[in-house]
Design brief:
- This protein has two domains: 77 residues, Ribosomal protein L6 (Outer Surface Protein A, domain 3), CATH 3.90.930.12; 81 residues, Ribosomal protein L6 (Outer Surface Protein A, domain 3, Alpha-Beta Complex), CATH 3.90.930.
- It is built from three helices and 13 strands; from the N terminus they run H-E-E-E-E-E-E-H-E-E-E-E-E-E-H-E.
- A hairpin with a 3-residue loop joins strand 5 and strand 6.
Length: 180
């Protein structure tokens, strides 16, 4: 039995859920998102306070917790939004904004330019880049694409890492003398 699917989704003030034929439309102060509707999983909304899912068939129990998690992420997104913070470590690593585009200087011979898709905004402060938006999946995907440009390496720790991420360091060469 799903433990996540049982929990109700609390709805903050100003957030509404409209059921459609194949999806739920979640509206809030930051925008609107659509959440897919799965067969056999039923949503009940209690007067704008909370939403709960029930599962009709045992065949669809795998989608019960997924439905609840997707709706919870959409509710948080349209009310407060999602952010991912990344740090640039290393000599010469810089980030700058030109309009809405993110320009990264990562030690290559050319600058790396990242265009934000619709619904995503970048902000830069010193060597910290923040990706924000209302769609959790899209925010995480764009942050992963930025990190992929220069992953943190294990010897000196240079590269782009998420805020609070621990990079396991390796010992370098021992520099031993010649063998006899």
């Amino acid at each position: 039995m799903s433990r996540i699917g049982k929990q109700p989704v609390t709805l903050p003030l100003g957030v509404t859920i409209e059921p459609q034929l194949r999806e739920y439309i979640v509206k809030g102060s930051k925008g609107t998102l659509t959440v897919p509707r799965f067969e056999g999983v039923v949503l009940t909304v209690e007067a704008g306070k909370a939403a709960t899912f029930t599962c009709e068939k045992d065949e669809n129990r795998a989608l019960w917790g997924l439905s609840r998690s997707l709706l919870q992420n959409a509710v948080i997104g349209v009310s407060t939004g999602w952010t991912k913070t990344m740090e640039l470590h290393g000599v010469g690593m810089r980030a700058a904004l030109q309009g809405t585009t993110l320009n990264l200087s990562l030690g290559f011979s050319h600058p790396v330019v990242v265009e934000p898709p619709a619904g995503i905004t970048f902000s830069v402060e010193k060597n910290t880049v923040t990706v924000s938006g209302i769609d959790r999946q899209l925010v995480g995907e764009i942050a992963a694409q930025i990190r992929k440009r220069r992953k943190p390496e294990p010897y000196k720790g240079k590269g782009i890492r998420y805020a609070g991420e621990y990079v396991r360091r390796k010992a370098g060469k021992t520099g031993g003398k010649g063998k006899k």
